[in-house]
Amino acid sequence: MPAFHRAVTAISRQAVFRGAQRQHVVARSISASALKSAIAHPITTHGPPPKAPSPTSANPELLQKDAALHQKTEKRPLPGKPSVLKKRFWKNVDVKQKPDGDYQVLLDTRPIRTPSKDVLSIPSTKPYLAHAIALEWDVMTTAQQALKNHLIPLTSLTARAADIAAEDARGETTTRDQILKTAMRYLETDTLLCWVPEQNAYAADEVDADGKKPESLREAQIRVAQDTIAFLSTKVWPGVDIQPILDTDSILPASQPQATKDIILQWISGLQAYDLAGLERGILAAKSLLIAVRLVAEWSETFREVQRPGRERFGIEEAAEASSLEVRWQTDMWGEVEDTHDVDKEDLKRQLGSVIVLVSGETR
């Protein structure tokens, strides 16, 4: 027993000594104040502990209250928006031809107007455009849908062309100058002229299952671009020199020759209102001036002399492929993101299709 007591005494002394050391170190490194012991306050509450919360679905009364509150919220009109927008205030949509030959789209008896409050008038050579606009309004279920441009692409595009025509009649060039500036800016970074650099000479060539070398992204870009460049340099701008802007290892795009810029600028300046509005949408959709120019030249009623009768024209599918070639290359390799790539693809076709409907007509 004396040995046991001596061992306990020794352990206690060591513990006290270590505790003193620990207190000394903590006091020196963290704080100079003296350590204080925690104070345990007495429990002052009485009664059993509270019940655990139960799901809302387990309480029928709460479900009824939530449903009633939800119905009130739905019926309550949004601030600043009249409830009439949630209803379709017209029954019939008709296309009427005026004595001067132009078309109007009527909602019952009221003609459609542009954002500037002018009556939307469609040229007599574009009956298909008038009926397509009427179809846009006929499929609407609420008047609120007319406030969303993506639901009325042809209406908004035709209104843009009508505004340009109205400015031309007044001798103003505000909108034209804006479109010209945008178009020339896109020429400096045209999607059709951005090619990936050449492959390293020492890199291993990829082959498919049949042992053949597949077409590379650069080869596909050159093939698609040269077809459009050849058409533009022979039919639209004869003799113009169009150079690739990203064909080297540099990340800075190369500028086109000044003569090329002057010819393109003069050509855009002479476009009619409907062709100019279609060109603007084509540029913004395809991110390419050259693709938009070819689309307008192939389908516009004012460019019959450059169109090739009996041959397949440069249409929606070709323009969409040329403007999204790199995206398609990547999705073919890695797959599409659902509700993203497929939606973007269809939206691009919708916008390019609206350009064709706008600029085409029955002029011979």
UniProtKB/TrEMBL annotation:
GO cellular component terms, semicolon-separated: mitochondrion
Compartments where found: Mitochondrion
Classification via InterPro entries: ATP12_ATP_synth-F1-assembly, ATP12_ATP_synth-F1-assembly_N, ATP12_ortho_dom_sf
Principal place of residence: mitochondrion
Source domain of life: Eukaryota
Keywords: Chaperone, Mitochondrion, Transit peptide
Gene Ontology BP terms: mitochondrial proton-transporting ATP synthase complex assembly
Family the UniProt entry places it in: Belongs to the ATP12 family.
Protein name: ATP12-domain-containing protein
Organism: Aspergillus tubingensis (strain CBS 134.48)
